[in-house]
Amino acid sequence: MGLFLFFMILFGASSRLVNGACCVNIKHTTRVGFVAIFTIISFSGIAVACFNSDISWMFGVAIVASIFAGISQSFGEAVFLGFLKGYPGGMVGDVSTGTGFAGIFATTTLLVSKALNVSNQALFIIEAPTILIYYFAFKWLDVQKRKYPYVEEKPN
User: Fold this and answer.
1) Going residue by residue through the chain (156 aa), what tens digit of pLDDT does each one get?
2) Closest to 83 (Cα-Cα) out of 36, 150, 37
3) Cα distance between residue 27 and residue 85, in whole Å
4) What is the 3-class SS of the chain, one letter each residue?
């Protein structure tokens, strides 16, 4: 478990640096597309590793999948917070509340699925398509941002 966490943190921190140093001129929607692809790769890799857990090298597949998970989570957070620069400052707190609830929701989903004897493979296969919902919701939000730009009101 420590190895998984180490790779997620190492590559996650590296991806934040890459986002800040190299990806500034790349559109947010393009970067979110990379986040979606990396997340689908990570979910699929973990599902494959779970299906074939009796094959010794599948542990390596799980490690690589955890690297993709770490990259997508860290890079995605940095991209989304950068995207918020076109919104009122209070939106950062709203987004933080939403991500906090996402952790509670994910934990509850995991506990309920374990109580219903849903396998890890099934969970990751079920979760992979939800990334497409995330991507298209972000695309919709980007269109709204362009259509109705936020203009900060100046105090009198």
Assistant:
1) 677 678 777 877 888 888 788 888 889 899 999 999 999 999 899 889 988 878 888 888 988 888 888 888 888 888 888 888 877 877 777 777 777 787 888 889 889 999 999 988 888 888 888 899 989 999 998 898 888 887 777 776
2) 150
3) 13
4) CHHHHHHHHHHHHHHHHHHHHHCCCCCHHHHHHHHHHHHHHHHHHHHHHHHCCCCCCHHHHHHHHHHHHHHHHHHHHHHHHHHHHHCCCCHHHHHHHHHHHHHHHHHHHHHHHHHCCCCHHHHHHHHCCHHHHHHHHHHHHHHHHHHCCCCCCCCC
Identity (one letter) of the amino acid at 39? Answer: T
Task: Report pTM.
Answer: 0.79
| Cβ neighbours around 23 below 10 Å, total | 18
- The token duo for 49 is 């590793």
* Inter-CA distances, 84 with 24, 67, 91, 120, Å: 14, 26, 7, 34
